[in-house]
Write a structure and sequence with these properties.
This protein is globular. Helix 9 crosses helix 10. It has a single domain, classed as Rossmann fold (3-Layer(aba) Sandwich). By secondary structure, it is an alpha/beta fold. The protein contains 13 helices and 7 strands. Strands 5-4-6-7 form a 4-stranded parallel β-sheet, sandwiched between helices. The protein starts with a strand and ends in a 15-residue tail after the last helix. The chain binds 3'-phosphate-adenosine-5'-phosphate sulfate (PPS). The site of 3'-phosphate-adenosine-5'-phosphate sulfate has 21 residues, from helix 2, helix 5 and helix 11.
């Protein structure tokens, strides 16, 4: 049964953002027409979506590499569950790039037939927690929390847009054989962007020259993206109604920021829950910049 409050809209057991809601779109997602050459970026919120939208669009649309290009990253790679720009996706020329925070069981049927490619980006959940906490306090469409403890409670109970992180990653991983999917780690992108760009381009079968890769890497660094208004959503950060305080989408972009935020008790509690929920889960996680 659907349920809604000011911030969260529950549809088929999953929490969506009430502010960006398009009920008809959600009802019809199953039948969203997928093309063989579509690419979908799938993430839990705050795991590296914007970063991958930027990388993929740089790989695909050579002319976007020129920073004078005036297309916002959310238009280059729109969300299928929100369609913020109300675009007719069926009229978009191929190859199309989309992104989504959907769990595996709510994505269009066409994806389950291994049509199209999926890149699933995952990030260590302690850094997601911190990033999400700051983001929710900043953007008015999200529920603010008095402190990290309060947000952690919601996050660990899955009472946030995107629902429970543990279910999201597990669901996608355990059903990976139903999809044509590549799992990439935020931390691996952070540690070696060049290798990561190559890995992504190979997966989407786009041959890139060394020079192409140089250009993409340069434009996909945190420093460059932070100064690009089309990627760092300047229009939103300068819209007083959309935000509560000063801030930026690209906040810190680091590995291990959780260490400066979580108390020893919070960290131990997180570890205990992680250990029990992620038991026998084979994907690797990196919690610290110095870790290999
Ligand atoms: S959202 O709102 O779900 O689309 O957010 P998402 O884009 O998934 O995640 C935002 C975090 O990703 C960081 N980010 C980057 N880190 C490193 N390098 C680059 N180029 C980059 N681009 C985005 C962004 O800063 C957010 O993380 P935090 O920790 O808050 O800085």
């Amino acid at each position: 049964m659907d349920s809604t409050d000011k911030y969260l809209f529950k549809f088929k057991g999953f929490y969506f953002s009430t502010s960006y809601l398009d009920h008809e779109l959600l009802e019809n997602l199953d039948d969203f027409e997928v093309r063989d050459d579509d690419v979908f970026i799938v993430t839990y919120p705050k795991s590296g979506t914007i970063w991958t939208q930027q990388i993929l669009s740089l790989i695909y649309f050579e002319n976007h590499r020129n920073r004078t290009e005036s297309i916002n990253v959310n238009i280059r790679a729109p969300y299928i569950e929100y369609n913020l720009q109300k675009t007719d996706f069926s009229k978009r020329p191929s190859p199309r790039i989309f992104c989504t925070h959907l769990p595996y069981h709510l994505v269009p049927k066409g994806l389950k037939n291994k049509k199209a490619k999926i890149i699933y980006i995952y990030r260590n959940p302690k850094d997601i927690l911190i990033s999400y906490y700051h983001f929710s306090n900043w953007v008015t469409a999200f529920e603010p929390s008095e402190n990290i403890e309060c947000f952690m409670e919601k996050f660990l109970n899955g009472k946030v847009v995107g629902s429970l992180w543990f279910d999201h990653i597990r669901g996608w991983y355990e059903h990976r054989h139903d999809f044509n999917i590549l799992f990439m780690m935020y931390e691996e992108m952070k540690k070696d962007l060049r290798i990561s760009v190559r890995k992504i381009s190979r997966f989407v079968e786009k041959e890139l020259s060394e020079e192409d890769i140089d250009t993409i890497v340069k434009q996909a660094t945190f420093e460059t993206m932070k100064t690009d208004p089309l990627v760092n959503h300047k229009a939103i950060s300068e819209n007083e109604a959309a935000t509560r305080t000063e801030g930026k989408f690209l906040r810190k972009g680091t590995i291990g920021d959780w260490k400066t935020h979580l108390t020893v008790e919070q960290n131990e509690r997180f570890d205990r829950i992680f250990k029990s929920r992620m038991k026998d889960f084979p994907l690797k996680f990196i919690w610290d910049m110095n870790e290999n």
